[in-house]
Write a sequence for this structure.
């Protein structure tokens, strides 16, 4: 029961956050002189007639609060508007561009958690070993690398030589799973690695630190003294307790992850949501940008609710607070 | 305190017996430990070298007679209009897509990166310390609001906000510095708040209050000096992330605009040259990597030097356990 209440409370906060983001976005873009807004909405090359029709169509001459209510009303009906560049509905664009982004996020996150947590656990259980030292150095390099540098270097050092030697499985650009799982993996491999390298570094370090502290606790000694196997001591007693701060870090990193996704899409030309948003900026395509900001915010809010739930399952004390 | 620790400390005191004992401040001790750490010293040397390169980039450009934004369509490009390789026609690191000297531009990129990195860290540190102190010291509703705000900033997808701001205000150096500072203070504020919470319960704060010190005097005169050490470590570690942030924005075309050289926009321009001009990709990437790595290593080094208990105690404990097992 307490868990259900916790969930309801989190969802309600999530809705409030979304409303704040939508309001912020609206005033950031629309609370400016009408001509400026209309000019941006209509695109760079718009004629005065087009601009006038945009003003009429969107009611930009009306008081700002009336516009704000209409904006919220459209949002509640799930209508994100139309791109002034391609005349497409933003809803359709987002639906079209979602698959590359989803592929990248899902594969990248799996690879990143396996690599990050796995290396962290091994490092902590063999502290000061050769593996630990090597991984500490690797983590520092990973922490220092911007995502697009990892991507660029991977393209330079892996993609180019492989393709020059006739090994064409690894590719840039996007191909969906419908074109065969092998093709899909070949196209997504380098983007996945790029996403994982940078993010995994943080988690390796965090997991190692947490687990080292946990393994120094008295109850771990008690578990060992009871004669439990080392594996059981480490995973059941050590890792489980060390995992809670890692999960809370996960909530903070969802926003970061999104940034990484945008950059990786641009580096590898994946034509996902992020790349479309960046292109929209160079074309001053305001409706698309607003749509992207709102979808991104919704994603962060939902992901944070999921993370909080996992956290509450791992650590029952959170539900009361 | 465990027996091992006591033994270890006793041993240290015995080792000191021959020497005259002199008082050393926390900073002197830290510096002595840091100086013995080869990795930290090497990083410091790299950082100083980078700063010198950035300062003397114009001088260097006039030395090789290749201004940063001048294209050399004849000497700097091959017959097919491609960048020339390192070492050709006096271009030590080759040229970029429009035939400009790559090395001069990499040095100029250091100016932007280091400037943005240091300025944003300074702003973020001042803001973070002030907010963290106020939240931690006053507690209650002020703390709740500030903590929620901090959490929201930490969780916000910064690239998205940067996209939005770049559209509304147009990309510029000021906007970049504002965006990066805005997303950097929260982490510092959180740590300062935590430290303040524990420090304000100490007896000497009680003493300060009893002789009539006001809240701001207590915060900035009594608590702040005790926070300087962790804040310094954090600041060192924030510089590389600000550098990464700036280069990412510039890479996406939302930051420093060409023709001004920045490592990020150079790498963006290099996007179509993986197959033909490896140097165009490699050198800006290496410059970026070396700089951020040096700051990260130095930050770690300073942290270890300030808090010698962590790693060294761990080693001592392991040594003792291994000794016991034999």
């Amino acid at each position: 029961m307490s868990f259900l209440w916790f969930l309801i409370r989190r969802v309600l906060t999530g809705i409030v956050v979304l409303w704040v983001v939508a309001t912020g976005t609206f005033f950031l873009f629309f609370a400016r002189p009408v001509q400026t807004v209309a000019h941006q909405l209509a695109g760079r090359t718009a004629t005065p007639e087009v601009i006038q029709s945009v003003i009429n169509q969107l009611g930009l001459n009306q008081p700002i609060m009336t516009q704000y209510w209409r904006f919220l009303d459209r949002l509640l009906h799930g209508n994100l508007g139309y791109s002034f560049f391609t005349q497409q509905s933003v809803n359709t664009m987002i639906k079209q561009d979602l698959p590359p982004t989803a592929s990248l996020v899902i594969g990248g996150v799996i690879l990143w958690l396996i690599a990050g947590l796995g290396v962290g656990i091994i490092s902590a259980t063999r502290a000061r070993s050769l593996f630990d030292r090597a991984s500490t150095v690797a983590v520092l390099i990973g922490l220092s690398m911007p995502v697009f540098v990892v991507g660029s270097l991977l393209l330079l050092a892996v993609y180019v030589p492989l393709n020059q030697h006739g090994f064409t499985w690894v590719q840039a650009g996007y191909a969906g799973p419908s074109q065969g799982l092998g093709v899909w993996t070949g196209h997504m491999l380098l983007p996945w690695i790029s996403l994982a390298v940078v993010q995994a570094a943080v988690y390796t370090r965090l997991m190692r630190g947490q687990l080292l502290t946990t393994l120094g606790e008295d109850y771990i000694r008690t578990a060992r003294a009871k004669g439990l196997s080392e594996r059981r001591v480490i995973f059941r007693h050590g890792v489980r307790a060390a995992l809670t701060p890692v999960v809370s870090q996960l909530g903070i990193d969802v926003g970061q992850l999104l940034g990484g996704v945008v950059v990786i899409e641009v580096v590898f030309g994946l034509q996902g949501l992020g790349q479309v948003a960046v292109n929209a900026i160079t074309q001053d395509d305001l409706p698309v940008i607003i749509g992207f900001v709102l979808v991104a915010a919704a994603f962060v809010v939902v992901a944070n609710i999921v993370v909080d739930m996992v956290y509450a399952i791992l650590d029952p004390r959170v539900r009361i607070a | 305190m465990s027996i091992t620790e006591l033994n270890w400390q006793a041993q240290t005191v015995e080792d000191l017996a021959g020497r005259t004992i002199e008082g050393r401040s926390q900073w002197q001790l830290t510096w002595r430990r840091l100086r013995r750490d080869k990795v930290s010293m090497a990083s410091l040397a790299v950082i100083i070298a980078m700063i010198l390169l950035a300062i003397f980039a114009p001088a260097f450009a006039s030395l090789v007679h290749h201004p940063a934004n001048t294209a050399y369509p004849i000497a700097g490009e091959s017959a097919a209009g491609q960048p020339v390789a390192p070492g050709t026609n006096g271009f030590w690191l080759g040229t970029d897509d429009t035939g400009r000297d790559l090395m001069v531009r990499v040095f100029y990129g250091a100016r932007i990166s280091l400037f943005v990195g240091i300025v944003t860290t300074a702003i973020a540190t001042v803001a973070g310390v002030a907010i963290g102190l106020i939240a931690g010291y006053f507690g209650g509703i002020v703390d709740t609001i500030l903590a929620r705000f901090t959490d929201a900033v930490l969780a916000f997808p910064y690239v998205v906000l940067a996209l939005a701001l770049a559209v509304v205000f147009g990309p510029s150096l000021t906007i970049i510095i504002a965006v990066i500072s805005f997303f950097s203070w929260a982490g510092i504020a959180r740590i300062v708040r935590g430290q303040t919470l524990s420090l304000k319960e100490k007896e000497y704060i009680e003493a300060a209050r009893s002789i009539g010190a006001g809240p701001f005097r207590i915060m900035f005169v009594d608590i702040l000096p005790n926070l300087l050490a962790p804040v310094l470590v954090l600041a060192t570690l924030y510089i590389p992330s600000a550098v990464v942030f700036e280069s990412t924005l510039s890479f996406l075309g939302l930051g420093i605009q060409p023709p001004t050289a920045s490592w990020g926009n150079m790498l963006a321009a290099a996007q179509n040259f993986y197959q033909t001009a490896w140097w165009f990709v490699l050198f800006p990437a290496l410059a970026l990597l070396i700089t951020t790595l040096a700051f990260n290593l130095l930050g770690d080094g300073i942290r270890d030097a300030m808090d010698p208990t962590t790693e060294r105690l761990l080693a001592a404990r392991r040594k003792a356990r291994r000794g016991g097992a034999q």
Notes: Chain B has a mean pLDDT of 80. Chain B touches chain A through 43 residues (CB under 8 Å). The domain at 46-65+107-268+283-314 of chain B is CATH 1.10.3720.10 (MetI-like fold).
